[in-house]
Amino acid sequence: QVQLVESGGGLVQAGGSLRLSCAASGSIFSINAMAWYRQAPGKQRELVAAITSGGSTNYADSVKGRFTISRDNAKNTVYLQMNSLKPEDTAVYYCNADGRAFRRGSYSDFGSWGQGTQVTVSS
Q1: CB neighbours of residue 106 within 10 Å
Q2: What count of other Cβ atoms lies within 10 Å of the Cβ of residue 40?
Q3: C-alpha to C-alpha distance for 37 and 93, rounded to whole angstroms
Q4: Would you write out the chain's pLDDT as a tens digit for each of its 123 residues?
Q5: Which has the closest alpha carbon to 82: 109, 103, 62?
Q6: By the 8 A CB rule, do 87 and 16 touch?
Q7: Is 42 exposed, middle or buried (0-12, 13-18, 19+ CB in 10 A)?
Q8: N- to C-terminal Cα separation, the chain
Q9: Among residues 86, 92, 87, which one has the least CA distance to residue 20?
Q10: Distance between CA atoms of 27 and 3, rounded to whole angstroms?
Q11: Nearest CA among 107, 94, 114 for reference residue 28
Q12: What share of the chain is helix, strand, coil (3-state, %, to 5)?
């Protein structure tokens, strides 16, 4: 119903920067919160940053001051600017969005995940 496609991952040296993008498409009526999660090998998936439709944000303590989440509501896209990257930021990063879908004359709630994009930070 609603698909999320991430891009922008890759390999970077410690101290470098990357910008992730996630575009939502499909039977979207409205999107509430959009967020980035990450999962490192052997660890649980954790919230990195989230942003509401009104622009309010929250961040994991480990990324505050280094990462910035933003969104373009007209494009149904969320971004994650990652600066001063550390090896411990290495993980698969997943986009998440929830909201309302409209299809065949009916509304429904949705919650969707992207397929994930690998971020590797070398020391």
Answers
A1: 8
A2: 14
A3: 6
A4: 899 999 999 999 999 999 999 999 999 999 999 999 999 999 999 999 999 999 999 999 999 999 999 999 999 999 999 999 999 999 999 999 999 999 999 999 999 999 999 999 999
A5: 62
A6: no
A7: exposed
A8: 40
A9: 92
A10: 9
A11: 107
A12: 5, 65, 30
Partnered with residue 99 across adjacent β-strands are 31, 110
CA distance linking residue 77 with residue 74, whole number of Å: 8
The amino acid at residue 97 is A
Beta-carbon contacts of 106 under 8 Å, excluding residues fewer than 6 positions away, are none
State whether residue 75 is helix, strand or coil.
helix
Residue 106: half-sphere exposure toward Cβ, Cα within 13 Å? 5
The residue type found at 91 is: A
The secondary structure element, H or E, covering residue 18 is strand 18-26
Token digits for 28?
């979207």
Task: At 85, list the tokens.
Answer: 């990257």
